[in-house]
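Below sits the subject:
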Amino acid sequence: MEKLLSSNSKNSIQLPFFVYGTLMQNFRNHNHMFKNFKFLKIQEAVLEYVSLYHFEMGFPGVYESENKGDVVKGELISLDKIEKFMYENLVKNLDYLEGFIEEKKPDYDYLRKVCKVRVIKEDMSSEYIDAWVYFCNLDLNIYPNKKVECGDWKKFMHKERIKNGNDKIIEDDSGPAKYAF
């Protein structure tokens, strides 16, 4: 399904990122990580053979699944016209945020892998693109969690109104709801 690559982005091409939680638009870490990039392209995307869980700590995680019907909806974030050093710095910062420092240490919170992500185009057709994905490495038997059956964390958070952190949804006239957590 996917190929684990080195966390050292100097040796890898500049792949896009598949995000499915707090790094999506209108969630707390999106602006924190991507606000300084002018040429940001965001597309709807789906990751197959994965299950999505929401942790009571206020964030989601994906886990591998044997079932093709298990999918997670998210966003593919591509960065055009970006200097190599800026991309490398972004990967380093995302790795830090996700608790992934070295691929050889399996006890980190997340593992960064390259996966085939299905991108949904404007004409509703789709294509598969290689992208970085952070897979959760937390033990589901230890950390309180709830399976997100719909595979869509944004929809889950809106529907459930689960409170954490700043515990509110900010409504304004500038577009869709902005999630404060």
